[in-house]
Every structure is written in structure tokens, then in C-alpha cells.
């Protein structure tokens, strides 16, 4: 992580001063004169390096002046610093509510004027569409075009959007569009052959491509996109031709139901895998003899049963997936949103569909795959912004060569941390949460309660309803109303129960009179595997100098300690808490630190292994001339 050394701070302050000087010259200009300035600046930027502070300062001053006139939003000095950091190809850590959307317009406009196709990448379709509409007047005033990529668009619509100077999109959409382009190009992709196709072919491949290349990217919520989601490879599949799939999966689930944990198989929750014991393998062989056919093969029958056990013991309804309109829809564990166009690979999705008595979708064969790390490293210029990046600064540098710089807040932070409340069981915890919400609600303060799953949010909703507390629930079932619900969460007396990451990127504006009562109060009901994700939830309150507070109400039966902590240590902590020993809270804090540290190391290892596998695959396939 880059520290604010005296020389770096001096350079940043000098840059801000330079922007202000150029801005003073623009204040009295007419709209036509500003248009002429933009045209001249475009020529200067194309002749100079965009990291040249002198020319960049002119661009930032122009964008700031236009934002003031068109949006009635003027960039703060800290936003100028944030934009400057992004232009250097680094990650800017900016506190929640500091205006990262407006900050991104500074480097985006500068790069677009210099002739680079710019992609501003965020975590969901709503934010991509919202930011486009909000910032479009700034781009249009500079003579720049802006497009949006969202789920469900046709190939032609995508091509037009990517053809704009600035394109807002999600990480999933752009990454899969890139893979689609690689499939379109195929193995024979020499420059000469592609150019000849343009001259003589009826539908040349170059005209069927969606993207114009990977030139300049600004990644919003960079830790979520570049780190959290990098554990899962990007895979494009085509429909396979597997006969009698339904019957096969039903047989596997029947066999799995006859096996006993410990004796026949072991569940490894940390690695999310099932291990068959020697006895279990023998039982599978004996039980499957009645079926014959594919079950006669040792490796195939064991893999089928292992997948069935995985579906039964490691994937839970309303936690890892929803059943909606008769279909299994994956819940993104980092955003809490459903992903209706995504499916698990290697038959797991079909196994879960069979388990839930849903219509079976055909098992799919892999056409192209790539890791997020490999995809984002292909950009010529990559920058990021987020509210929580310090904890992963080392990984951002080692994988993406991206330094993290912490930008100071525009106003002092008014957030207050209350003492963590610890309970032995989850039942005690949820009752305590309901009591705490009721107590705070009497003060008329708005409350945001964060949960880790749909199941947990609905369980708490029932408890609050029993206490006659009016509230709104936001989880994967209400994702279409997400922004609306979150935007209202700051009103006087409002109670909102949401999965931890729901509404990320949407400001919770405090209603009239709320500041007088202490601002928004956030309740954390379960810690995440990464400490910075807990920071994201607590960061929903006390933004831009507003008052606010947060409190964690936890239990030893939460998923984090039960999966990642030694059972002996958990029993010790539970006994100490039962006797209300003086150091029990300290012991619990130690348990949670051990759990989060273990989870973060495990996930970092998974991302590292995925990247290594991707690099080995690239090397192996290079002999056949196919990179993906």
C-alpha cells in the first residue's frame, strides 16, 4: 500500500492547486467557449501522456466546471485527488459516501478525450444504468458518447454500447462478452486472415466482435470485483447431449441418502468439498450394482455420489440458491443477488435441480474459460476504487500490479462503534437482535440490520413481526426493489433488514430530523470471512460527516467460527462465556480473528491456485494456437 509521503502529498496538493487555477479561468466562459476548450484539450491530450499533470489538470478543471453547471455537483478536492490516483493506474480507497461515481468522471473523461475506449465496471446492472444516466450530461457536454451494458441486451445493442467513448457495465457482462469474442475469433485469428475476411467475407469475424479491445478500465468496488469474485472461473458453456440425465441424478441422490456422515463420507466446510471414506466407496459399489450401466465404472459412480452429497450437505436453499418460477437460481454470496443466467458446472446444478424437483436443464459443455485475474490483467490501463482495499493491498499489487492509496475523507468521520454483544447460541443471538432493534426503534432512529443469507433475513423478519415492528426486507427475493428500499432506509423510524451486501453503491440519505436522534444505526448479525466486508456494512452509517453508529450481535454457532475454528477452542470459549468469565469477550474476539484469518488465507490460496491453473492452461493450449 502506498503511504502519503511528504513528496506524494506535496505533488497531490500542487495538482489540486493547478486544477483550481485552470478552473478560475473557466468560470466566466460561455457554453460555446467551453465547447471550444474541450475541442482544443482533446488535441492536447492526444499529443501528450495522460499522466502529465499539466494537461490532466486542465481536463479535471473542465470536467469539474461542467459537472457544476450540468449536475449542480462540484468535485471536492479529495475527489480530484481520487481521480488523479486512478489516472496513475492505482486503487483509490475512499470512504463510503465520498462520491466515487462523480470521482470516476475525471479520469474517464480525460482518457476518453485522449482517444482511449473507457470501461467503467461496477457490480450490478442497476448501478451501471444509474451511473450512466446520472453522469451522461457531463460526457455529452464534452462531445463524448456514453453507453451501458446490462443483462439481456442483444449482440447489436452491445456492439453499439461498446462503440461509445465511455461504457458503463458489470464485471460479469464484460468478461463474458470478451470470452464470446474469443469464441468468435476461433483458433485461426491471424491479422492477415482477419483483414482478408473483411474484404471478401459476407460476415467477417471482425464485424461480429462485441468489444473494441481492453484499453482503459476503472473498476468500482474493486475489492469485490478483483478479489472476492476472482475465486470463481469464468466459463461459457454450450448444451451437451447427455441421455437419461434425470434418472441418473435421482439414482445418485438415492444412493447418497443411504450413506452416513463420518462412517461413509466427511464434509469439509472450509474447502467446500466432500471426501468419501474407504468404507463409503465400498458401500457405493455394493448399492449401485442394482443400476448397472454407467454405475459399473468406479470413478464415474464415486463422482456422481460425491456431487449428490455436495448438493445435499454443502448447498442450502435460501442461502446458496433460490427456487424461483420453478428454476434454481444461484445467489451471489458477495452481492446477495440472484444470477438467473448462471449455473454451477460439472453436473452440480442439475443435481440441485433434481434435489428440488425442478425441471432439469441440460448439462453443459465448456466452450471457453478464463479467470477474472487473467481477464483484468489484459487491460492496458487498470485502476480501481473502493471503500475497503487496505486488507488486500498485497494481493492487488502481486496480481494486478495495482498500488492502493487511501484518500482522506472530505469531512471527519462521525461513526461510533458500540460494544460487541456475544451469545452462545444462534437462538439467543436472534432474540437479542430483536430486543436491540426494538430498543433503538423507540429512539426513532433508522436501523439497518445486515444478515448473511436470505434464510437469516426472513427468520429475523418473523421475530420482528412478532414484536409488531414494521420493517422492510431486502434480499435476493426483492432485488428489483433494492435501490428503492435502501434509499428509504435513512428515514425516521425506518427498519430495514438486508443481506450484508445489498444496496452497495447506493447512498442511504438521512431523512429530516434523523441527525438530531443520532443518525443511522447499523446492526451486524454475523461476521463475513473477510474483515473488510464487515467494514463495508458498518460503513453504511456515519457518511460524509453524518452521525451514526453500529453494533455487532454475534454467536459462537455462527457459520464463521463453526467452519474455520478448532472445535476444542470453540468449546472452551463457550464454557468461559457460560460462566461469564472476565476474559470471555477477549477469548471470543480471538476466536473471530482466528476464523477470519483462516478464511482469508484459504480464499487467497484458492485465487492463487486458480490463477496458476489458468496460466498453465494458457501454456498448454499455446501449442494448439488457442489461448482460451
Defining traits:
628 residues; alpha/beta; Rossmann fold; Pre-protein croslinking domain of SecA; 3 domains; seven-stranded parallel β-sheet; 24 helices; 21 strands; globular; disordered C terminus
Question: What is the strand and helix layout of this fold?
Answer:
Layout: H1 6-26, H2 31-47, H3 53-71, H4 77-87, E1 91-93, H5 100-113, E2 118-122, H6 125-141, E3 146-148, H7 155-162, E4 166-170, H8 171-185, H9 191-200, H10 205-208, E5 216-220, H11 222-226, E6 234-239, H12 245-257, E7 265-268, E8 273-276, H13 278-287, H14 298-313, E9 321-324, E10 327-331, E11 338-339, H15 348-355, E12 364-370, H16 372-376, E13 381-386, H17 393-400, E14 404-406, E15 415-417, E16 421-423, H18 426-442, E17 447-451, H19 454-466, E18 472-474, H20 482-487, E19 495-499, E20 520-524, H21 531-538, E21 548-555, H22 559-564, H23 567-578, H24 584-621
Parallel strand pairs: 1-13, 1-14, 2-4, 2-5, 3-4, 5-13, 15-21, 16-21, 17-19, 17-20, 18-19, 20-21
Antiparallel strand pairs: 6-12, 7-8, 9-10, 10-11
Q: In words, what does this structure look like?
A:
This protein has 24 helices and 21 strands. With 628 residues, it is an alpha/beta fold. The chain has three domains: 6-234 and 376-406, 3-Layer(aba) Sandwich (Rossmann fold); 241-362, Pre-protein croslinking domain of SecA, CATH 3.90.1440; 415-555, Rossmann fold. Mean pLDDT is 85; it is low at 622-627.
